C-alpha cells in the first residue's frame, strides 16, 4: 500500500507528519517505528523513505511542523512592543501549547542528549535563540527598560527555565491555570525587572566626534 489513490503528494506528506506527531509523542523517538507511523496514517512503510529518507529525517520534519520552540514576538511591527510585552506574549503562548506539541519539544531535547546526529541539528538553533535573548535583554537595559544591575544572561536563563517548565507541564497535560491569573502573575514577575524609579536613567551613548573636531584628536 503506497500513496492512496486520489491523494496528492502534499496530502500524503501531511498525513505522515500528523501520524508521526501522534506516535512520537506517545511512544518517544526510539520506540516509535516506521511501521507504526505508516499504519496510523494508513500508508505503506515505503512512503516514509520516499518522502523523508529515514525515520530521523521524519522526526526532524515533524518537530519543525508541530514542535517548534516558540519564541515568536507579539503581533505588530518591530519596535511596537516592549520587552515586557514580548516575554508576556511568549510565556502566555507557551501556557496554551497543545499537549502533543509540547511533548514533541521535550522529546526533541531528550533525543538530542542521546543522539549526536540529532544534537547537531537541535542544539545550534537553541544556542542561537539563547544568544538572541541575551542581546534583547542587554538592549533593553541600554534603553532603560530593564534594571541594568541584572545580569542579562542570568535573566535569560530564568526565562528559559520558566519556558521549559511550562512546556513540561503541558507535555504532562497538566491543566493550566486560568489565563487571567497566569497573566497577572507574569505581569507582576516581569515588573520586578524594571529599573528602580529612584535611580537615574542610563545616559544615552554619545555620538563619535566628527572628523576635524578637536575632540577627535
Supply database-style keywords.
single chain, 217 residues, mainly alpha, Arc Repressor Mutant, subunit A, 2 domains, 9 helices, elongated
Strand segment count: 0
Low-confidence stretches: none
Terminal CA distance: 79 Å
Number of helices: 9
What helical percentage do the residues reach?
A: 55-70%
Strand-pairing-aware structural class? mainly alpha
**Quaternary assembly:** single chain
* Sheet having the most strands: none
Return the domain count: 2
Strand content: under 5%
H/E element sequence:
HHHHHHHHH
On the 0 to 100 scale, the average pLDDT is 81
Q: What is the rounded Rg?
A: 23 Å
Description:
This protein has 217 residues and is mainly α. It folds into two domains: 56 residues, Orthogonal Bundle (Arc Repressor Mutant, subunit A); 109 residues, no CATH class. It is built from nine helices and no strands. The model has no long low-confidence stretch (mean pLDDT 81).
Question: What are the SSEs and their pairings?
Answer:
Blueprint: H1 9-27, H2 34-41, H3 46-51, H4 55-66, H5 83-95, H6 99-114, H7 116-142, H8 152-171, H9 179-191
Helix pairs in contact: 1-2, 1-4, 1-6, 5-8, 5-9, 6-7, 6-8, 7-8
